[in-house]
Amino acid sequence: MATVFVSGSLPSPAEAALSVLAAEHEVVRDEGGVGSARFAACVDRLEALVVPLTDRIDGAVFSRTPRLRVVANIAVGVDNVDLDAARARGVVVTNTPDVLTEATADVAFGLLLAASRRLAEGDRLVRAGGWSGFSLTFMLGVPVHGASLGIVGLGRIGKAVARRARGFGMHASYTQRTRLPESLERALGVTWVPELPGLLAWADAVTLHCPLTEQTRHLIGPRELAGMRPGAILVNTARGPLVDEAALAVALRDGPLAAAGLDVFEDEPRVHPELLALPNVVLSPHLGSAEVPTRAAMAELALENVRRVLAGEPPLTRVV
Ligand code: GLV
């Protein structure tokens, strides 16, 4: 019997999977995560950790858990886990790809539509009693249908966004280090742009789908924003630190951007005060994967990975 620490709350359909694990292992739970007293009380015997992305699993956590065998992150991004430290200690790290792809692509598209067509701004205006009636010149946004869409990172979620873009008659291009096979590009209706600046200068809207690493931190900074088209839209459903929020606020206030849609932030749950003050940015509280079947599937996958590692089997979705 191993000790498994489960941080945070799980969506209710995943409780059944947790009961299965609890039949064989000691399960310790605390909403307070790795900062909680319950976690501190079991570090010496802990063999598995199930955590959401808000738990930082750094070198200090690894040092406190000498028997740790697996960290099951309930997220596809693993920037909250020190992967080098895990490698050095031989700890397996798993994530939850695939199960959240379509849900996250939906939110990216939702933010693209809301930001381009000023839907959140319009909602606020109506509620505040500020709508004086239809006018041909009132609250005009920028088109989504027929526009050019730049996808930064054509992984699983980027591809799902490309499929949606096709349905909207958009022209999609992507950038990433490795070009996809041409047959796949044709099937997705995308063209490759080798460098980010070229994509930014071309696209009416840009959506970010790359992981957060030391190389991609502030991928979108003052220079990149200045290189975007006048009236462009930026969407970020990946990780907040990909974008320099202070620079984004300037680009939204003074141009060239028309609007932005953000689901992720540099220092969640804090949002840059200058962004909060701007009407032309739609802000959602990290909801990319937030629907019941997706969140349940993420938690179930994480628990299955733990079950497998503890049983000496290969996990389904190993990162390290
Ligand atoms: C959510 O942000 C995830 O990485 O799964």
Report what the structure shows.
This protein is of the alpha/beta class and 320 residues long. It folds into two domains: 3-97 and 292-310, Rossmann fold (3-Layer(aba) Sandwich), CATH 3.40.50; 101-283, NAD(P)-binding Rossmann-like Domain (Rossmann fold, 3-Layer(aba) Sandwich). Helix content is 37%, strand content 17%. It contains 13 helices and twelve strands. A seven-stranded parallel sheet has the order 8-7-6-9-10-11-12, with helices on both faces. A five-stranded parallel sheet has the order 2-1-3-4-5, sandwiched between helices. Strand 11, helix 12 and strand 12 (281-283) form a beta-alpha-beta unit. Helix 5 (101-116) packs across helix 7 (156-167). The protein is globular and about 70 Å long. The model has no long low-confidence stretch (mean pLDDT 98). The protein binds glyoxylic acid (GLV).
Share of residues in helices: 25-40%
CATH class of the largest domain: Alpha Beta
**What is the CATH fold-level name of the largest domain?**
Rossmann fold
Order of helices and strands: EHEHEHEHEHHEHEHEHEHEHEHEH
The proportion of strand residues reads 15-25%
CATH architecture of the largest domain: 3-Layer(aba) Sandwich
Mean pLDDT: 98
Question: What is the overall shape?
Answer: globular
The CATH superfamily label of the largest domain reads NAD(P)-binding Rossmann-like Domain
